[in-house]
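Model it.
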Amino acid sequence: MKKYTFDRSRRGTLGVGIVVACLLTGASIKAQNKDTIATQKLDEVTVKAVRMPRQVMAPVPVQVLSGDKIEKLGLQNMADAVRRFSGTTVRDYGGIGGLKTVSVRSLGAHHTGIAYDHVAVSNCQAGQIDIGRFSLDNVAMLSLAVGQEDNLLQSARLYASGAVLSIITELPSVGLKRSYGLKGQLRTGSFGQVNPYLKWTQKVGARTYCALDADVMRADGTYPFTLVNGKRVTTEKRYNSDIVAWHSEANVYHTFKDQATLNVKAYYFNSERGLPGSVIYYVEGNDERLRDENFFVQSYYEKRLSDKVQMQAQLKYNYSWNRYEKKDINGNADGKQIDVNRQQEYYGSSTVLYKPFGWLTCSLAQDVAVNTLTNNYTGDTNNANIAPVRLTSYTAFNVKLAWNRLSLIGGAINTFTHDKKGRKAPSIDRNQLTPSLSLAYKPFENHDLNLRLLYKKNYRLPSFNDLYYLQIGNTNLKPERATEYNLGVGWSRYFGGVVDYLMVNVDAFHNKVTDKIVVIPSTYVSKMSNYGHVDIDGIDLSAGLNLNLSKRVKVLLSGGYTYQRAVDLTNEKAKNYKDQIPYTPEHTGNGSLGLDTPYGHLTYSLVGVGKRYTLPQNIEANLVEGYVEQNLSYTKGFRWKRVDWSVQLECINLMDTQYDVIRFYPMPGRSFRATLKFTI
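Modeled.
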């Protein structure tokens, strides 16, 4: 059986890059939702800051990472940050350029909604989002909510998700004596990584701010490892994990005289990367290349119509283009297989919230989306150039009842889709109503102890790839259905002494998935099919502790653990009956220890993942061993020449641990990074 370990003699590579940015658009300063935005005045600057959700008192499991904690933990990218949340499984194909998707509590990436500044991110072609394309440099808060959130003023599309990963970017910050702000950084490190970032904020009126930011990521991604094949040991290198990516974003934030707010955002992302293939003995499948281009412009408007009525409205246009290239195994004349896809979406959402009494709140949300996909596929009369179009309507109605220390939220979401494969093909209509119910109860008035209960139905539509992709698409697919149950308790307390703060959350969950959409291999042509009944049982634990060793020295501890048993109950006679489903570990955990001193902030963190299986049958031949990755970071801030500076030094994978997230896709060993930041 093949094994490999990493060469410990590697060296970090340093470099220099230049940021180029040029976009403009619009946005908002204060948000009317008091649970979202807070305004605060300091001595030297005016800051618009994101207020963190109440993790303990929320009616559903909520986990939060602030931008400050993300920085102190030395997290490399969005996937590293999401791994800190209990109950998440991140699929990572290795290297800086590898694709990264997230599944929550084994429901699958298709059931995880992604919100970027309150507006949903979509991909109707693949049905799942590559979170690796989102930068952490401009993130003020990252949160993960399972099931039904208690914020009734959100879009119906987010209501329809089994879990929502919310990314909130930084709001404008300018000096009191000047109308602009400037923030920049240069990050460089191992494997040829160079990542400059720059953000400019400008006050252009009494109630209007503009912000423009951009970053460039460049890395060759080549790292060594040792391949062990029986008695033979060779030193190899991991190739085709390079990436050159550019991201730019522009915002305009405006507050109207009636305190209504508007945020308009333009976003552009462009990347050219290698897709590192599997390493099987001495053969690496490293000939795949992917180019991505994504542009969207979105607006978010919020207004209080009266003391009892609020509303929000969203508009979005999204354009995605990708080009996949690899050697053609069928031996075409040009020797390459090239797939080109263009996807467009037109999306609108509106929500009205009505609060007739202090104990009763209602909301009605309506979303409409039109998706189109064109491609260059040829040679298959059933699937070539089909240019499918999908019209989707989401309607969500929710009611919140609050009596003293009891809160009850119930609702239902109706999802309607109209699919058209081509001009002559018949249309396919689908309609589904999914209910949800959550309850939160605070037993003691003077103690932050919260009991919560959740029930939610979810509905996953087949993606365009599931239905139409080349020869494996299946237009007869049924939608995938999932049911979530959660019972949890949260407790927190401020002590104010040596033990300053303590927080604990415990949640037990049970999920059921039916008509699961998977690829079923055959002797001739594999096909997408509805296959499977999966039951998922588990427990999520998370805790945080702050200690004051002195007035200037603090210790910050946090950690999380998840146990989940996700078993296949499809066929009692099958060899994999009641076996753990592929790539789902029973045990995962994370922890961090931070030391805050006048001399800087030192953080030690780790992520642990238990054993997994690559195929449905849990046998030794399909086993992927577990691993623990440890990181160390040091951050020091100082002021020089009237500019705030900070330096961060990081060691990633401190113990040079060899591991795979996906089998035969070795992850990098020990690496180093250095970051220099400034703020004016």
